[in-house]
C-alpha cells in the first residue's frame, strides 16, 4: 500500500468484540484514526453480507448506520469520536443496539402565503448513515423577466435559490441531528449563514420534520430558519448519491457534495 507524503498509514490498535442482540459476537479491527462512524460502516457491510441479516420492524433489511448505537461500558459512542481517544483499547467489547432511523427519500412542496413563490425540499437518507438535503426556491414573478432578458441571472437577482447540505445523521430517540460536512449554495442568502448542523425529528416511518434555511425569506418576510414536514416517496431506498442525476447542478455540472 502507498501513501502520499501528506498522509500517514493507519496504525492498527487491535480488535474489538461487537456484541449483537442475538448474543453473537463480531470481531472488527480498528486503527488509531478510526471514528465510530467508520466502524459502523464496516460493521454494516458485515451484516449485509452475513447469512442472517438483522430483522427490523419485521422486514429483512439491514438498518442504516444512523440506526446503529455502539455502547462502551455505559456510554453511547458518538459518530465523530475517534475510538482510540475515548479509552477504547484492544479486546474491548462494544454492544450494538438499534434505534429507529429514517431511510429513503422524503420531500415537501412548501406552501406559503405568497402564491407567486415555489419551494421543493428533499432529504435523502442513505444506508451509509448520511443525509443529503436539497432545496430549490423560486419567486415565480421572475419567470416573465427571464423570458424578456436572455442574460437575466435569477440567482444574482434574488429570484431563485438552490442549496445542498450533506453529512452524517445522529439519532437520539426520535430526534435527528445532521452534521453538515459539505454544502453548496446558489443565490442571494444575505445574512443567512451556512448551517453547521440541521435539526429534525422522526414522526413515523413515512414522515420527518426538519429545521431548514430558506433564501425566499427575503421575499416572503418569513423566518429564514423554519420547521417543515417532509413525507416519504413511494418506497425507494437510496444510497446517496445513487447517480449523478441526483446531484446535478444547473448547467450540467455535478454537485461536489
From TrEMBL:
Ubiquitin-like domain location: 15-97
Classification via Gene3D superfamilies: Phosphatidylinositol 3-kinase Catalytic Subunit, Chain A, domain 1 (3.10.20.90)
Source domain of life: Eukaryota
InterPro entries: Ubiquitin-like_dom, Ubiquitin-like_domsf
PROSITE patterns reported for this sequence: UBIQUITIN_2 (PS50053)
Protein name: Ubiquitin-like domain-containing protein
UniProt lineage: Eukaryota, Sar, Alveolata, Dinophyceae, Suessiales
